[in-house]
């Protein structure tokens, strides 16, 4: 049968005798915002695909949906009291329920746009995401910078978006649109973050510093213990255990049950206390202003005083913080699965796992030269790590004078970082060569515990 005679084609021709309706070339912003609110969004904003804030995101966005011309950011409020509860099952129920709601609202918006002949795509609010790229970028679009650019809030020192009205008790979604919009939004003119430092006081692993620095590794290792890398670490505990008795020595019955709960119900956050204690936002701030001591007594201290297991990397800043600040909390040494698979992953990921306090006695410049089949175009890849005053800077090429030069075969260096190659073997076989004192490599390693 020729395609023109196919029943589907005939039905389409009959239905669209005057030709398919053309969608509006430009969508009206006011109508689109009303559509989003009718679908259940509590707030909404728009940015164009060419916005500079998307320079690091644009390639991946267009890879996922090449026709993207604009982005819609939506906000959905969470109920505050469940998030504040020391019983994390209550908080996680709210996270999961609201997360499902974000996805459902985005789905409804896309369906209505599609019915109008407008192409649109709604990437996942959260998990699951593009895990084939783990531990690299595992999401289609970063919701937070899109929301900030679309005027829906600003990032607080706890690295969460704070909405001017709803505070940080929100979840975000993003919709990619195959259409221009009549008006786009700009960032708000102030930061709702009060810099009250309550998130600093409540964080059990010290991931948030009073000076605004953020320890991604500490937050990731504990709060996401049953997600992604924490889950792979648990699997390795299972594999490495000789029998059930040794497994129970490594993983308690409560931890095994918690992992089962995450697998059957949904991954559970271990803390997110920074969200719980934040008083910012017009709808949130009233009780805090009325009685700050009561806010501390009722919301902050129950989280601080809670007896719980805190997951940390061995010899990390987080381990030192918990031991000193929360001696009543149990510290457990674990892995977090943040093992780079490529040299690019190592260079990009290093700032996120760097431990400032572990570098307190180190001020040095390291030149790296990577070679091997894994290197793009076969040309040596060079980078400089500068560790000074408990801060790390990573740049391309060799900058300044090196205190230690490291020439390494790429696969061997990655194997060393993943604990699949021993440094002594690598040095003896000259897969890794040093020019400078070996003790500097040891000091370098202490800044990046795994």
Architecture overview:
Residues 1-21 are annotated as: Disordered. Residues 184-213 form the 4Fe-4S ferredoxin-type domain. This protein is an alpha+beta fold and 450 residues long. It has three domains: 20-181, NADH Oxidase (3-Layer(aba) Sandwich); 198-333, no CATH class; 343-446, SCP2 sterol-binding domain (Nonspecific Lipid-transfer Protein, Chain A). Helices cover 40% and strands 16% of the residues. It contains 19 helices and 15 strands. It starts with 6 loop residues before the first helix and ends with a helix.
In short:
Pfam families: Fer4. This protein is 40% helix and 16% strand.
Task: Compile the SSE list and pairings.
Blueprint: H1 7-15, E1 26-27, H2 29-39, E2 43-48, H3 58-64, E3 70-77, H4 80-84, H5 88-115, E4 120-121, H6 143-149, E5 154-155, E6 161-162, E7 170-177, E8 180-181, H7 198-202, H8 216-223, H9 228-240, H10 244-250, H11 253-265, H12 273-277, H13 286-290, H14 292-305, E9 309-312, H15 317-325, E10 330-333, H16 343-353, E11 364-371, E12 381-388, E13 391-396, E14 404-409, H17 410-417, H18 423-428, E15 432-435, H19 438-446
Parallel strand pairs: 1-8, 9-10, 11-14
Antiparallel strand pairs: 2-3, 3-7, 4-7, 5-6, 11-12, 12-13, 14-15
């Amino acid at each position: 049968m020729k395609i023109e005679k196919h029943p589907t084609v005939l039905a389409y021709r009959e239905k669209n005798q005057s030709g398919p309706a053309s969608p509006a070339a430009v969508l009206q912003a006011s109508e689109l915002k009303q559509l989003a609110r009718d679908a259940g969004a509590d707030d909404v904003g728009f940015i164009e695909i060419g916005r500079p804030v998307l320079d690091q995101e644009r390639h991946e966005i267009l890879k996922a949906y090449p026709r993207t011309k604009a982005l819609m950011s939506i906000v959905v409020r969470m109920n505050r009291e469940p998030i504040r509860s020391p019983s994390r099952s209550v908080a996680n129920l709210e996270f999961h329920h609201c997360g499902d709601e974000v996805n459902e609202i985005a789905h409804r918006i896309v369906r209505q746009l599609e019915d109008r002949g407008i192409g649109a795509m709604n990437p996942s609010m959260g998990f699951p995401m593009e895990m084939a790229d783990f531990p690299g970028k595992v999401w289609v679009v970063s919701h937070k910078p899109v929301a900030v650019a679309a005027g829906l809030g600003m990032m607080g020192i706890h690295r969460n978006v704070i909405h001017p009205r709803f505070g940080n008790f929100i979840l975000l979604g993003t919709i990619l649109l195959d259409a221009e919009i009549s008006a786009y939004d700009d960032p708000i003119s102030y930061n709702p973050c009060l810099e009250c430092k309550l998130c600093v006081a409540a964080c059990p692993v010290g991931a948030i510093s009073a000076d605004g620095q953020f320890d991604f590794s500490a937050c990731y290792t504990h709060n996401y213990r049953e997600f992604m890398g924490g889950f792979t670490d648990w699997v390795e505990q299972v594999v490495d255990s000789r029998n059930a008795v040794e497994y129970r020595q490594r993983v308690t019955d409560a931890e095994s049950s918690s992992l089962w709960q995450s697998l059957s119900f949904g991954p559970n956050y271990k803390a997110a206390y920074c969200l719980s204690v934040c008083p910012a936002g017009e709808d949130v701030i009233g009780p805090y202003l009325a009685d700050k001591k009561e806010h501390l007594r009722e919301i902050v201290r129950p989280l601080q005083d809670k007896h719980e297991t805190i997951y940390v990397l061995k010899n990390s800043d987080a381990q030192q913080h918990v031991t000193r600040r929360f001696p009543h909390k149990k510290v457990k040494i674990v892995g977090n699965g943040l093992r780079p698979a490529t040299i690019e992953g190592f260079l990009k990921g290093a700032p996120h796992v760097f431990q400032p306090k572990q570098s307190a006695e180190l001020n040095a410049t390291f030149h790296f030269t990577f070679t091997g089949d894994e290197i793009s175009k076969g040309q040596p890849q060079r980078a400089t790590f500068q560790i000074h005053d408990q801060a790390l800077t990573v740049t391309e090429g060799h900058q300044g004078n090196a205190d230690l030069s490291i020439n390494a075969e790429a696969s061997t260096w990655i194997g060393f970082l993943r604990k699949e190659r021993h440094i002594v073997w690598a040095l003896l076989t000259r897969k890794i060569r040093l020019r400078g004192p070996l003790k500097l490599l040891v000091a370098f390693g202490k800044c990046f515990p795994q």
